[in-house]
Amino acid sequence: MSGLLRLVPDEPEPVHDLAAPPARHRPRWAADPIDDLAEELAEVCATAVHPDEIAAVLEADGLTGEQITERYGRRDAFELAAELHARIPRSHPEPAPVPDPWKVKPGPFALRSLVFTLPGFGYALGRPLMTGAPDRLGLPPGTGALVASALVAWAWNQALAHRAYLRLAAGGRAAAGRCLRLGAPAGAALATGAALAVPATGGAVAFAAGQALYLASATVLLVLGRERLLLLALVPTATGGAVVLATRPPAPVGIALLLATAGGALFAAAYETVRTQRAEQGPSAPLPPLHASVPYGLFGLGCGVLTTLAALGDTIAGHGHGHGHGAGAAVIALTLSMGAAEWLLYRCRGRALTALAATTRPAALLLRAARVLAGCVAGYLAALTALTLATGALWPDGPSPTVPRVAALLSLGAVLWTGLLLQAYGTAWIPALLCLAAAAAESAALALRAGTPATGQLLICTGAAAALLTVATVLLGRITTHR
Question: For the CA atoms of the chain, what is the radius of gyration?
Fold first, then answer.
């Protein structure tokens, strides 16, 4: 028997911690109950930033200290939570993708581009109404009355549209219709009064009055989302414009087409505002005071002056007919680009939300916002450049826009687009004041004959665009902006 025995060296006696509770002894083949608990709480443990989060879950499940000691051989919930936190690696799942609330199709914006541009043919059809010798600025007779009426209409209708959209959001179509029924006729009357205040022939004043009625009606239809009705009303003018590209139609025909467009738009606007009376009244919500719409009107006035100077500046300065033709083609391109501008405003807001969701630090959000803004501005300017070159190639009886004119137009486009973006985020006074300042500076430069109009516009609008882009970058880089 002794030959079968093996001598085992003496082992030291184990040292017991008298302060610790006696651990449960289990056979080596028995499963560790903590493994089962870790599997049960795997998701909680993987996403926990601190063991105390796991301890809170254990206590919420009703585990007492005695149960934890008996079942798992640990002092308390905190010790057990610390072991679970150490066993399971961190795994923070990405949040589920959120649908982009600003995702829209480009089709409706292409339609809006048409309704912004087609009225330009009306000036060619209404040329017989502008009879007489050019005025002292070298402009066709009656141009001053048309410009005064248009500027007042742009300013008023911008403010009116802002107010109507507020009422649409707060009280539905019925509230927006009441606002438009009062505001649109008042705007048309003010614009007609502005035309009467400028010396002009009766035909020019009548043309300005028709322009005021059309712009008021178009504002109503655009706010109520009836772009297709407005496009239908523009069919006569568009048809006349197609004829003008080939030959000059008889004066009565052109005037009849203008009356058909103005009358159709007026009838459609009146019909739609009457329909809003039957719309269900939405829940009433508090509205900002009336003066909150003032900066939107001032922005419209500033943009109107800048656009007018882009179209007529060369003629006023006497720098040659060819430049004037190029400016006209450039302004047509600018109006055509407004649909792309609106679509890119939606894209910018959607991409800014995506940047916010992917960012964890304020500095990173600012950088991402700058990239989003730069990409959208570049996209708009690329579209504007393509449209300018296309309209210049198709423009009758004149050369394509010159390089300085295209550069000046791009700077103006950047001002308009960035100003609209800031307005979309509720920042209205800064773009309004900057656009008015740019318009005043360009007017002064033109009056003082300080360089060519294109050079003045390029320098002034570039400075205004840089200021607006800086403000927009800071605004988009704030988390609170996107709430």
Answer: 35
Please name the amino acid found at residue 194: A
Decide: 302 and 326 in contact? Cβ < 8 Å: no
Domain extent listing, the chain: 16-87, 105-287, 294-483
Helix (DSSP H) and strand (DSSP E) numbers for the chain: 19, 0
Burial of 38: CB neighbours in 10 Å, binned 0-12, 13-18, 19+? middle
Residue 10: pLDDT band by 50, 70, 90 thresholds?
very low
Torsion of CA 174, 180, 182, 188, to 10 degrees: -160
Q: How far is CA 108 from CA 232, 271, 340, 381, 463, in A?
A: 15, 22, 10, 20, 32
Report the C-alpha gap between 266 and 434 in whole angstroms. 34
Contacts made by residues 464-467, CB under 8 angstroms, sequence distance 24+ = 464/415, 464/434, 464/435, 464/437, 464/438, 465/411, 465/414, 465/415, 465/418, 467/434
pTM: 0.78
Q: Residue 306 has which token pair?
A: 């800048």
Burial class (CB in 10 A: 0-12, 13-18, 19+), 129: buried
Rounded CA-CA distance 158/167 in Å is 14
Given a contact cutoff of 8 angstroms between Cβ atoms, the answer to whether 211 and 150 are in contact is yes
Return the number of other C-beta atoms located less than 10 Å from residue 146's C-beta.
25
C-alpha to C-alpha distance for 222 and 218, rounded to whole angstroms: 6
Structure-block tokens of residue 236: 């006569």
Query: How many Cα atoms sit within 13 Å of 333 on the Cβ side?
Result: 32
Express each pLDDT in 460-483 by its tens digit. Answer: 999 999 999 999 999 999 888 877
Whether 88 and 50 have beta carbons less than 8 Å apart is answered as no
